[in-house]
Structure formats: structure tokens, C-alpha cells
Amino acid sequence: MARRTRSSIGRLLTATLATLLLVAGCSSSSSASKTGAAAGGSCPYTFAVITHGDNGNFWSVVYKGAKDAAKDTGCKLSETYGSQQQGQAQPDDNAENAQIQNAINAKVNGIIVSDHAPSVMNATLAAASDAGIPVVLVNAGCDDADIAAAKAVTCVGQPESLAGKQAGQRFAKENASNVLCVIHQSGQNLLDRCDGIAQGLGVGQKCATGDAPTSGPACTELILSTPNAASNPQQAVGQVTAYLQSHPGINAVMTLNNAIGQALVTAKPANVKIATFDLSSDVQNDLQASPPTLDFAVDQQQYLQGYLPVEFLYVYNKHEGNAVGGGTTVASGPKLVDSTNIKSVAAAIAAGDD
Amino acid sequence: MTSSNVAVARPDEAGPPPADGPSGGAREQPDGGWAAALTRLLRRPALGALLGAVAVFVVFTVTDSTPQHLWLTQTGFQAWAQQAAFFGIMSVPVGLLMIGGEFDLSTGGMTGFCAIIMALLVGNEHWNAWAAVGVTFAFGALIGAVNGIVVTRSGLPSFIVTLATYFVFRGLSVGGVLKVNHGSTNIGLTGTQHPGLKSAKDVFGGSFAHSHGLPAGYQTAILWFVGVTAVAIWLLARTKFGNWVFAVGGDADAARKVGVPVRRTKILLFMGTSTAAALVGVISFLQSNTAVSEQGVGYEFYYIIAAVVGGCLLTGGHGSALGAALGACIIGMALQGVIYSGWDSSWDFTFLGAILFLAVTVNTLTHRRAMRSRR
Fold this sequence. Notes:
The structure holds two protein chains of two kinds.
Chain A: H1 2-34, E1 46-50, H2 57-73, E2 76-80, H3 93-105, E3 110-113, H4 118-130, E4 135-138, H5 144-149, E5 154-157, H6 160-173, E6 178-183, H7 188-201, E7 218-223, H8 233-246, E8 252-255, H9 258-267, E9 273-277, H10 281-288, E10 296-299, H11 302-318, E11 329-331, E12 335-337, H12 342-350
Parallel strand pairs in A: 1-2, 1-3, 3-4, 4-5, 5-11, 6-7, 6-8, 8-9, 9-10
Antiparallel strand pairs in A: 10-12
Chain B: H1 33-42, H2 46-63, H3 74-99, H4 107-124, H5 129-154, H6 158-180, E1 186-187, H7 197-205, E2 207-208, E3 218-219, H8 220-238, H9 240-250, H10 252-257, H11 262-288, E4 291-292, H12 299-309, H13 321-340, H14 348-372
Antiparallel strand pairs in B: 1-4, 2-3
Helix pairs in contact in B: 2-13, 3-8, 3-9, 3-11, 3-12, 3-13, 4-5, 4-6, 4-11, 5-6, 5-11, 7-11, 8-9, 9-11, 12-13, 12-14
């Protein structure tokens, strides 16, 4: 009984959404034709965008990339936003999997999806390919095994351990090699980043847990337990500060979330270099301050994670299965941004493209 | 009916017995012997929370593994008091509302939404910071009034009504912000001219008592926490309104029959929680200069945990403002203490769950026993 009510609500929602999308689609295609269709003609394809993300800072830029690419090519998006609804602490992988199935049933011309739970989603994604729908993974699932298992064209994302490694190498170069890696929520990708830092510092394959040593090179993980740490940076920073006070040997902090990085900058801990993953306008200000209050930021250029897959699928559909990537990941990042190159990135941030 | 006996405060005990504060019990006449004194003590809802807070403090004093034994220094105190303040400013009015027999699940989302309003007005629109503070508080009070009026007029459970409010604001603070803030959900300060910002920061997001041992000082948020707690204790123990709160939570029909304005009391309580949420939003924006859409999500349950640990019964009619404040202190100590102790902080949640269960068990048992031994 409950199930039936739920599905009828779902049907109603889908219908409403479809109507909205139809309206949005009409208006966007009309505006595209007005701008003279840079792609040289209208694109008859519709792609589904399915992610494990929310609508926050990071993912809104991905979606903007996808929308811009759709505008540039004239293709349509049947947008299905992320499975992590606002107010949920974690993504809902089963919901995302169901959305993939919906997209297959709707016979879209391509699926852009973050393969957040490969064990759940790979089989569904392989079924999409079998049904003749090309799949491009984004952001999550960017390793060759998952690309093969999902029968995907490619994956557009930032190889996390590569990003960590470059950050670790940079810390080592700056003689700030006793690094604290701050983990704000659960997720293999975050652990991979920290492990990458350890590799970049040359202290083994894994970032250690527990007490940090008094001198580096070393990588130590701190797992935050403040409720919803990413959304309450000031409070999360209370825990980071406490750890720094009790481990005075640490001379570098890497935050994996830009809001926490910014809040840590505001708290002004003594004798540590601060770096963060991902950009924001605050991060930009910190890098542009003189002297810069933030050492560097790791930019995964997630705009590309929205933009490129649309282009790839367009090319794939239009030109008889021309597939980008060769079965491996197309790296959208990492790009290390610091005070020397922030100017060029700043314009992109201002436009909401980074 | 029998099961609700525990929860129902008879009108004659609504006043003095659950009174808070050190002076609350001093007026009672000693009516003989150790047993009576002990019963009086046990009847205080804040007792469990006080014992719990002391126990947690002692545990972390022992387990503190920092080289300088930070837990017992000003630095350690500042660290957990700052965490506690964010929870406590909310848990105290949430506790009052629970004593009045209602829930507010919109509190966490409201703190974030109010921070967003501040950020939009000050950061994007370049308003005078004090005007923005005024608007934010007015907005908070308004939402509380709406919650209260809907709950009292419709007779729907407050659990559902405020859950709805919560989701409405989650949507607004993401969708709305994306609309007005160029596709980003993170709002910071733009431009250079910010009238009134410095003085507003001093009051809400500043620090005081800088010293050699603690160069950064204590945050003013801690003072607000103490202030909110003091006002709530006074309201409950010394005013007619305090008696009304216990009465409407114990038995709303009985309260109505003896002339208590049930609706007005409940609406005021809802306005209390949402105005406190505005205060937290104002403080959090003025501390950091930024607001994020997802802020405060999930916190409503921590506020309820703090209030319940502090002796507020889920069924209403019994509880304590001081207890709710102590409950917030326990959460604050737990978050910082595990770091100083060098434990894996993932266990915080388990720790909080255990504390919650223990506190509720102790509170219910002692409350039941104490009420029985009154006869």
C-alpha cells in the first residue's frame, strides 16, 4: 500500500518534472537557435545527468558546465540532479541506481553519471550500454576496472591519488612535510587523496592514523566528527585547532573541503601552511591576499566534468561511435592554484565556471 | 492513561519543585531528614546532566594525552565552551519548548537560513550590518510565530509541521541562493565598504578576555550562551510564564481550564526557538564572514539530545533550562575531548548515543521514583 502511494507520488513528480523540462527545453532550444547555433545545426540528442552530489558549491559548477555544453551544442539535458538531497548527510546510492534505470527506460541518447557505488551501479550501467546508450562516468568511478565493468566510454574526473601526490610533493618542496590531512566525511575518494599525499611525501602508500610524529616527513589523517562537518566549518575547525594544539610538530594542513580550509584560515593557527582541495571565492581571496593566507588549492576543474561528457556524447552519437579516452580516465585535474596563477583562474570563478 | 502519569505535572507542582538554579530550592522548607533532602535533589531534572557533565569532564581530565595537558588550561576550556555555545544557544529554548510539550525540527535548518539572510544582506546587498541583524531576528521571530500558529490552530503534531518548515527552508536556502548568488551556494563578503560590520562583529562574532595564556581570547558566543541560559532559568523559575510552560506541557486541557493561555504560551515558545536560531545564524556569519547553504543541517537532533540529556521529558511537562545547557556542554566536551585524548573521533557518535540513552534512563527512573515517594 505504502509502496503504491509512493510510486504514484513519484509518477506525479516525474510528470511535473517532465513538464518543467519540456518548458525549459523549449525555451533553451529557442534561445540556442537565436544565438545562431555555434555547433552548426541543432542537436537531436537528449542526455541524462545523474550524480551522487547535492546542489552545493561543488556540484552546481558541474551542472553549469553540462548546461553550457548543452547550450553550445544544442543538445538537450534531461536533468536529474544528485541523489544527495539537501538535508541528507550522505548520498543515496539506491536512488541513484534507480535514476539510471529510469534514464534507460526513457531511451535517452547518452548517460552522464557519477559511478559512486560501483558494486551497485556497474551492472545497471552495463545494461545501458547493452541497450545502445553510451555512458560517460564523471567525478567518481574513474579507474580502468570500473570503466570496463560499467562498459563506459570513459570517465572524466580527477584521479584522487594523483591529486594527493602532487600536493604531497609540493609540501615536501616547501619543507612543510609534517602534514595533517583533514577528512570531513566518509568516502573512499577522500582516503585516496590522503594516501596520495603520503605517496607524494615519500612516506609509504598510506596516510597514517592516530598521533602525528613530532617531525616530518609524515602524513596523518584526522577524521572530523562534528555533525555534518562540511556544512559547519567553524565548528569543524574547532576540532582541527585542538589537534594542532596537541600536536605542535605539524607544519602543514590539507583540508579536503574548501569551506573548512577557509574557516581554518580565519582561525589563524600558528606555524602551519594551509592548503585545500577545491576552489571558491573565499579561497580565491585567501590566495590573492598579501601575503597569501592560503598556500595553494587543488582544483579539479569540475566545470569540465559537466562540460566534456556532453561534448563526448555528442561526438559519439553524431560521428558513429567515436569514443574519447581509450578506456581510461580523462583527467579534468588536478591543477594546483596558488598566488602566482590565481589571476587567470579568478575570471573563471567569477563566471561560476570553477 | 496510566502510562502518561509520569509525564503529567499536576498544576500544583508546576511551579517551585522543578525550579532551576542554586536559589530555586533554597526557599523550600526542610521537611525532615536525609531521605527528604535526597528526594528533593533527585527531583531536580538538571541533576542527571550535572553528574554527567562532571563525569565527562573528569574522564577527559584523566585521558588528556596532550603534552601540555591542555584540557585543564584556558585553551582547553575555550575549545569546548565554544563548541558548547553553538549547541547551547539552541538547546535551551528547544528544552523550554519540549517542556511545553512541542518539538521544533526546523531549528537546524533555520540557523543556516538565517546565516544566509545575513550574508545576502551584508555581503551582497551591502546593508548596514545592524539593520541586517534586525531583519534576521525579525524574520526568525516571524517563522516561529507561523510555526506556533499553525501547530496550535491546526492541531497537527509539531513534529510534522516543523519538519515541513525545515524542508521548505532547505529548498529556499539552496534554490533561492543559487538564483540570486550567480550559481554558487557559498556567500561571502564582497566589496570593501561594510557599515556597522565592525561593531556588530564585536558584539556577536568577536572575542574577549585576551591573555598571555590565550591570545585569541574567548568568543562572545560563549557569553550569549550564558545569557540565553540565565534568561531561560529566570523565566522558568520566577515568572508566571514559566508556570504556564510547565502547565501546557503537562496537561494542556487542564491548563486551559484553569485559565492558562495555552496557544499564546506555545506560540511564544516556538518564537523562542526560531529567534535563537536567528541568533546562531547571526553569530556564525559574523564570525566567519561567510554562509553556506548546507549549514546547520542535522543539528536539530543534537539540540534535542542536549535537552533530553538535561532532563526534558519527550512527553513534556518536566525539564530544566540549566539541564539543557549542561547537555550542550557534554556534547561540546565530547567533540573536543576525544581529540585531546588522541582517540579516533569517529567514536564520538557512539559516545553521544550512549550518553543519551544513559541520561534518559536515569532521568526517567529517578523522576518516577521521586514522584512516587512524594505521596
